[in-house]
Amino acid sequence: MLSTRSLLSAPALLIQWSPCNGREFNTTISLQCGTLPVPLDYTQPDPGKSFHLEIVKIPAPVQPSRGSIQLNFGGPGSPTRADAVVLGPLLQQGTGKSIPFICTDDSYYIGQILSQVRSGNDSDNALRRLWERAKADNYICQRLGKGNDTAEFIGTAFVARDLISVVDALGEDGMLRYWGFSYGTTLGATVAVMFPERVDKVILDGVQNPHDYYHSPADFEEWTDTDKVFSYYFTSCVEAGPEKCALAALNKTAAALEQDVWDFFDNIRAAPIAVGSDVLDLVGLKGFVIEQLKVSAAWSSLSQLLLALIYGSERELFLEKLANALSAGSPGGPANIIPVQSLWGIHCGDTIPRAKSFDEAVIAANKLSKISRLIGDVVTWNMAHCNQWPWHAKETYMGNFHVKTKNPILIASNSRDAHTPLKSALNVSSGFEGSGLLEVNGTGHAALNVPSVCSFKAMVAYWVNGTLPSAGSVCEAPHPFDGFTWADVFQEAIGSNLTRLAQRQGVFRRWLH
Ligand SMILES: *[C@@H]1O[C@H](CO)[C@@H](O)[C@H](O)[C@H]1NC(C)=O
Ligand SMILES: *[C@@H]1O[C@H](CO)[C@@H](O)[C@H](O)[C@H]1NC(C)=O
Ligand SMILES: *[C@@H]1O[C@H](CO)[C@@H](O)[C@H](O)[C@H]1NC(C)=O
Ligand SMILES: *[C@@H]1O[C@H](CO)[C@@H](O)[C@H](O)[C@H]1NC(C)=O
Ligand SMILES: *[C@@H]1O[C@H](CO)[C@@H](O)[C@H](O)[C@H]1NC(C)=O
Ligand SMILES: *[C@@H]1O[C@H](CO)[C@@H](O)[C@H](O)[C@H]1NC(C)=O
Ligand SMILES: *[C@@H]1O[C@H](CO)[C@@H](O)[C@H](O)[C@H]1NC(C)=O
Ligand SMILES: *[C@@H]1O[C@H](CO)[C@@H](O)[C@H](O)[C@H]1NC(C)=O
């Protein structure tokens, strides 16, 4: 084990903040930026080899503040700094940092990588092809690109140490306040278990099973409820009626609507469609649908899109819209090439077991497809990269996530989450002695995606007073097609008109992974 104490007892360098509106971010809230040098390699700290964390702070509206909250929105590797700024008005406080990892910035190689994003079940040889393509992508990263520079140094254990370095350099009380979503919950569980004495307040929302994250050859448990949420989409659509869910106008049962979509997936597999400069294929369409399933605010527009695509009304118009959305935000879209590479860099480096052969990978791919028919064949792409990844993180937390933190952490989950199931939240909460569980009976990826007065109050009570929800209590949430927003929550909970700010919750759709 590392001697973290010597590192931490050194007199902390304080971050120097300066205003940075307009420089990088276009927002009217006042921002402060600063940088902090941290060791590139915590196992062999060498002052000559440091890594500069770039941090942006959104000052609390009420001063003096009760301390900074560090944020991580998941991915891993999504641009936290930008997320924090866009979401600042909602969360109103916190710091974010960037984790640079790119394999290559050569447009030819990027084109090669992206042109081959496929479903593992696209055709008879799809999985094999995907496996070999991943090998080639990793070759680009290691032999032709920049992977060697940082790949070993960006693992979650080092980032956990960075969070503590930031705590020290804030010059507050030396205690950690952290709010993590999705992958950010793995980071949060890791920092809390590595530094239990430093925990003041930590919320983990939209929880990954961190055992699975480090020790499985693929993310199995994450997709436990994906198909259930997909079915629930149609059930709640029929309940909501045609005003709120366009598909309901067809007067079909939920099961019949769902079957139509499955049949359409089969059509697209056999006959992909050119839209603009892209080809809409199975992986593109499924990837898009899954992204929408994570955010119930997007459910109504998803129903219009499916109606158009499958049943033909205004089909061309919607195809064009879909093409734009895909190239802007799909897993393979140009906008996402950096997060995708960061995900490989962080998650693949953290993954301990690697399939020794293609045959072993086939077993994992089949298991993924069994867990979720909707996403299993889509995520084989990442699995193929991670299983052949050339690097291991220099440090990995190897314990069992059982700990008693100095102050209890709060774990939040929706009852129906297509990406991080309630099951994983229960798993983590059983390891963190004294932790609280906030279950929201809503649908979406992370409680932050489900506007609820009850969960808002519970989170405020935790941040302000450290109060945990009483055991077994479940927050009610609006029906997913109701169009209830955080603006309504603020209005109801604190009588404050934050409509304009809360309208920005639309960004969750884009950023919360
Ligand atoms: C900055 O944001 C404002 C308000 O959202 C917008 O009108 C303006 O076009 C943006 N400017 C840039 C340079 O993005
Ligand atoms: C990265 O390291 C590997 C293994 O040491 C080496 O084979 C490869 O050439 C290096 N890549 C570059 C671009 O130097
Ligand atoms: C669905 O049912 C409503 C009410 O019975 C009817 O007005 C409408 O025409 C039906 N729509 C279709 C597509 O069958
Ligand atoms: C693979 O595709 C076939 C149709 O070509 C389908 O019947 C099967 O269910 C799919 N398997 C998985 C695991 O998605
Ligand atoms: C948590 O998940 C891990 C990995 O799936 C499993 O081994 C462990 O038994 C689970 N713990 C509990 C309490 O369910
Ligand atoms: C949770 O929500 C579902 C779906 O809206 C509803 O059927 C169920 O009764 C709710 N459960 C509780 C305990 O309120
Ligand atoms: C925090 O506790 C104080 C004292 O008990 C109470 O007055 C206040 O309402 C609590 N604040 C929140 C947000 O729960
Ligand atoms: C809140 O502000 C918005 C935008 O300025 C306005 O349209 C809305 O009527 C206001 N709502 C209330 C309840 O005052």
From TrEMBL:
Annotated Pfam families: Abhydrolase_1, Abhydrolase_4
Please list which residues make up the signal peptide: 1-22
Sorted alphabetically, which keywords does the UniProt record give? Answer: Hydrolase, Signal
Instruction: Identify the residues that the record assigns to the Peptidase S33 tripeptidyl aminopeptidase-like C-terminal domain, covering every copy.
Output: 374-475
What are the GO MF terms of this UniProt record?
hydrolase activity
Q: Which domain of life is it from?
A: Eukaryota
Identify the residues that the record assigns to the AB hydrolase-1 domain, covering every copy: 155-229
Mind telling me which Gene3D superfamilies this protein's record contains? alpha/beta hydrolase
Q: What are the coiled-coil residue ranges?
A: none
Q: Which PANTHER family match?
A: 2-SUCCINYL-6-HYDROXY-2,4-CYCLOHEXADIENE-1-CARBOXYLATE SYNTHASE (PTHR43248), AB HYDROLASE-1 DOMAIN-CONTAINING PROTEIN-RELATED (PTHR43248:SF25)
Homology family:
Belongs to the peptidase S33 family.
Protein name (record): TAP-like protein-domain-containing protein
